[in-house]
Design a protein that fits this description.
- The complex is a heterodimer of chains A (116) and B (115).
- Chain A contains no helices and 11 strands.
- By secondary structure, chain A is mainly beta.
- In chain A, the strands form 2 sheets. In chain A, strands 2, 4, 5, 6, 9, 10 and 11 form a 7-stranded mixed sheet that branches. In chain A, strands 1-3-8-7 form a 4-stranded antiparallel sheet, with no helix packed on it.
- In chain A, a hairpin with a 6-residue loop joins strand 7 and strand 8.
- Chain A is globular and about 40 Å long.
- Chain B has 115 residues and is mainly beta.
- Chain B contains no helices and 11 strands.
- Classes of the chains: A mainly beta (116), B mainly beta (115).
- Chains A and B meet through strand 4, strand 5 and strand 10 of A and strand 4, strand 5, strand 9 and strand 10 of B.
Chain lengths: 116, 115
């Protein structure tokens, strides 16, 4: 399977705990994106990488959130001191770097986070 | 303020008929528009896209129309099939007034195709 994969698919954690999610993009894609989706909303942008460089972070990405893509391949998203408001679906997407196809982002299945 | 709006939360269509999903945007700097389909408990699946230099793009049963002067796009599905039942998201990017990396999504329209 050459699509975007995410791990874990579901995570239940207690408030105050740290969680880390992993995303493996489509292998030939240089750009990797993180989004968050809550009920009744469309995906909201969090951050994106071009190769290993983190080029942009949304205001939604508080200082409790950190993302890395150390070798320009897979990426991790960590949330420290989780709060109930962090409960959401966390989506990863990837795209090519150049040409019009860089706009076509392909999404993984998401990680459903529930903070109790 | 929402830059991409899908004003119809839901749409019900009979199998074999046309489904028309609508999307409005406010930012004239958007360069590219996309439609995604999402089933429950799955990530969004890319469906079809259109560049701002075109007014129509077709792929099988799916056609996207772009009216730049009205800042409006629509997705036509003909003929509709029960398997098309899903939530459809309109997305736009990049936003040169802000980010160049992200897509901005509408809230989605839930399409139900009845046999």
């Amino acid at each position: 399977d050459t699509g975007v994969s995410q791990d874990p698919r579901h995570k239940i954690t207690k408030r105050g705990q740290n969680v880390t999610f992993r995303c493996d993009p489509i292998s030939e894609h240089n750009r990797l994106y993180w989004y968050r989706q809550t009920l009744g909303q469309g995906p909201e942008f969090l951050t994106y990488f071009q190769n290993e460089a983190q080029l942009e972070k949304s205001r939604l990405l508080s200082d409790r959130f950190s993302a890395e893509r150390p070798k320009g391949s897979f990426s991790t998203l960590e949330i420290q001191r989780t709060e109930q408001g962090d409960s959401a679906m966390y989506l990863c997407a990837s795209s090519e770097m150049t040409g019009l196809f860089r706009y076509e982002q392909y999404f993984g299945p998401g990680t459903r986070l529930t903070v109790t | 303020d929402q830059q991409v709006k899908q004003n119809s939360p839901s749409l019900s269509v009979q199998e074999g008929r046309i489904s028309i999903l609508n999307c409005d945007y406010t930012n004239s700097m958007f360069d590219y528009f996309l439609w995604y389909k999402k089933y429950p408990a799955e990530g969004p699946t890319f469906l079809i896209s259109i560049s701002s230099i075109k007014d129509k793009n077709e792929d099988g049963r799916f056609t996207v129309f772009l009216n730049k002067s009205a800042k409006h796009l629509s997705l036509h599905i003909v003929p509709s099939q029960p398997g098309d039942s899903a939530v459809y998201f309109c997305a736009a990017g990049p936003n040169y007034g802000g980010s160049q990396g992200n897509l901005i999504f509408g809230k989605g329209t839930k399409l139900s195709v009845k046999p």
